[in-house]
């Protein structure tokens, strides 16, 4: 069931966050508009199990999604969330939307079963993610793209949602994110 709640702070007046599980009720046209504005050249929706959307009136201004995945690190299997599609509309960037959506996602995920989330980002954004609790687990990332292994020289970061899970267990030479889209 979609779940909406009011937000406050530096975000645009009347903002609210919507939490979606699965793709029922997905506002495809608004998402594509936001992705094109924030990432440029994107014309697909990333598959996701859960999304957090920030709306101001009927305008979509921010998005965070997670996908459930298995990761094999240092010969151990870990099931966690792969965070993707983190963005805020360029018109309202640096007004706290990205931070707010990630914090809300973490609050919701902490109440769920899996113990951690991982993501991959460019070097300039490491501080942004560290501010909301992520720590670096690798200097680079490993993907499967078009059936081939691809190494990205972008850091991998992780956050724990459970006291018993220490993200240092995920530290490795190149974090294996798996399939890329
Ligand atoms: C990255 C992004 C999601 C950040 O969202 P946002 O709502 O603009 O960020 P916030 O206002 O919550 O930022 C909080 C703090 O994080 C840091 N930060 C945010 N964006 C940053 C950037 N582009 N570069 C460096 N630091 C950044 C700053 O310290 C900022 O605080 P300040 O504004 O007081 O200096 C947004 O800029 C965006 O959509 N960028 C384009 C898409 C993208 O690159 N997504 C990330 C994919 S990994």
In short:
The chain has 181 residues and is α+β, with helices and mostly antiparallel strands.
What is the makeup of the main sheet?
8 strands, mixed
Judged by helices, strands and strand pairing, the structural class is: alpha+beta
Measured distance between first and last alpha carbons: 27 Å
Query: Under the CATH scheme, which class?
Result: Alpha Beta
Query: What is the third-level CATH name, the topology?
Result: Aminopeptidase
Could you tell me the mean pLDDT?
A: 94
Strand content is: 35-45%
Low-confidence parts: none
Bound molecules: coenzyme A
Order of helices and strands: EEHEEEHEHEEEEE
Summed up, the domain count is 1
- Main-sheet strand order equals 1-2-3-4-5-6-10-7
Count of extended strands = 11
CATH superfamily: Gcn5-related N-acetyltransferase (GNAT)
Radius of gyration: 16 Å
Shape: globular
- The CATH architecture category equals 3-Layer(aba) Sandwich
């Amino acid at each position: 069931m979609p779940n909406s709640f009011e937000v406050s702070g530096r975000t645009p007046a009347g903002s609210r966050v919507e939490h979606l599980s699965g793709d029922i009720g997905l506002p495809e046209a608004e998402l594509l508009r936001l992705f094109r504005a924030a990432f440029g050249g994107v014309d697909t929706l990333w598959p996701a199990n859960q999304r957090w959307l920030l709306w101001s009136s009927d305008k979509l201004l921010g998005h965070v999604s997670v996908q459930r995945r298995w990761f094999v690190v240092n010969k151990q299997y870990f099931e966690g969330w792969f965070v993707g599609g983190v963005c805020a509309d360029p018109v309202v960037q640096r007004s706290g939307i990205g931070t707010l959506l990630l914090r809300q996602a973490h609050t919701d995920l902490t109440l769920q079963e899996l113990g951690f989330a991982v993501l991959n980002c460019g070097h300039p954004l490491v501080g942004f993610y560290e501010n909301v609790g992520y720590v670096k687990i690798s200097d680079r990332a490993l993907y499967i793209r078009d059936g081939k292994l691809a190494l990205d020289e972008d850091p991998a970061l992780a956050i724990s949602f459970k006291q018993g899970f220490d993200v240092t267990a995920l530290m490795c030479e190149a974090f294996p994110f798996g399939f890329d889209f």
